[in-house]
Amino acid sequence: MNFEISALNVNGTKKALEKRELLDQVLSRLTPEVAAVLTDPYSAKWHDGNALLAIWQAVRALRGLEAVETLNHEIVRDSLGPVLGPVLKMATLLAGASPATLFSRLDQLASAGSRGSTHTWAKESDTSGTLTIRYPSPQPLELMEAIWRGIFRVTRDRLGRPVSIDSVTDAPGHAFVFRIRW
Length: 182
Fold this sequence. Notes:
Helices cover 55% and strands 21% of the residues. It has helices at residues 7-19, 23-27, 32-39, 49-63, 65-95, 99-103, 106-110, 141-152, 154-159; strands at 4-6, 46-48, 114-115, 118-125, 128-134, 164-171, 175-181. A 4-stranded antiparallel β-sheet has the order 4-5-7-6, covered by helices on one side. It has a 3-stranded antiparallel β-sheet with strand order 2-1-3. The chain has 182 residues and is an alpha+beta fold. It is globular. The mean pLDDT is 90.
């Protein structure tokens, strides 16, 4: 299986781009196939993950990696957050309101927006650990780091605890290792 993104994720991306008046600029940089995915996110339940990467590469070219990070934070908060809210609430009630609670359940939480990647949390202390994210094919490190930095900002929104990423490194098998603390 290749990495795939949900229609919900693409629709959230479209809404975030519209809100920032970037949609038309991004569409002009995409192939017709990728533009069709962004224009009509619900044309399929799942889309090839490379479509979303092409969208983020266009955003990066237009506004830089900081915009990629900010938009991903907004997408998770505004589009995926309402779907994941009950799951997050239950997880934090049962296991405690810690970023580790979220990271250790990231496979389950990510399933609303993507599939085909794996997420493995390794606790190092009560306030730190590593998160290994593995994809079925190579992904660009800088772009993926910006995407995930935006996603991780949701821990501040949901738990009142910002996380710091000390480092991100490539790992064998199309993986990235995020060293995280809070």
